[in-house]
Amino acid sequence: MTRIRNQRGVALPMVLLVTVVLTILLAAGFAAMSSERRITANDEATLDAFALSETGLELFLAKRDSFGFTAAPPAVSESTRIALGGGYADVVLKQVRKDTVGGRYGYAIRSHGVSTVASLTGTPRAERTVAQYAVWQTGSMKVLSGWTSLTGLQKNGNSGTLTGDDGCGQADTVAGVAVPTNPGYTGQTGPVSGKPPILNLGTQQQAAASTGIDWDGVVNKNAVQPDITIPPGSWPSFTNPNYWPVIKLIGDWTLPGAGQGTLIVTGNLTISGSNMWNGIILAGGNLTSNGNNTVEGAVVSGLNVALGQSLPQASVGNGTKTYQYNSCNVAKAMAKMGQLVGYTNAWVDNWPAY
Q: Which letter, b or e, does each residue of 49-80 get, where b requires 16 or more Cβ atoms within 10 Å of its Cβ?
């Protein structure tokens, strides 16, 4: 009887010991599970923050002007916060190189992504920083002549000037006019000068390809972002000599007035009277010139040929009009189309500061 009582007295401590051990094991299991869950959540949040920072950087590089920054080249410092799904990115641009003579400007662009997705209690918001060295690349245009017409050109009268001589004396002389073989150039050749005066571009398809202009992209895919589209917009004032906008005219138009910049016309364009345009004219249809007007820059007309349209030969009317290549005006017009381009192998992850 005594032995039985002693054995019963041992059972209770054994039960307590087993209970304590099981409790410890269970607590350890929960702690391990919680730790693993926190690690997984942290990894996911870190990836989210990385995606936010990288997305912010790429958006700024591709669409800087959409965030209100239109200076060309960019200013010494620019910064913005880009709201994104699940967080935001603070993007800061700093100029690190300035070569005014060579026209080369280098920048460091940093994007700090912050995830605002709800996290585990006690876990701070995930953050990540990436950076990229970039250069400001100015827009450029392949200029074949003072006036390139994919529908040929008919010059009426022997007055006026159609020349590829650079009006600002900074670039080599180009052709006076450039046209496909059929229809080619007809009428008076006295007003035409350049190297050569008349450049033969082959077939219309070859002529369209030689311009290097993606007209379908410009007209239908917003490859060039206009500052003003008419309609619904209205013709601007050009009182500011530094205002060189990109204007897109939908349909057939008569030039409303003098101006400067890049003029994109989806249909035919008529220039009458003494109106003047400095810069670039890209016309889908024919450009008809009446009166004593002047264009200093570069003209490409008949671009709808690249879209498969058939157009009649363009006509240049009588009058002492001037169509002259001007590399300075082309450069000023193309400055609106510059962009930041990232250097190869110049991307950094978790860059803390400049």
A: bbbbbbbbbebbbeebeeeebeebbbeeebeb
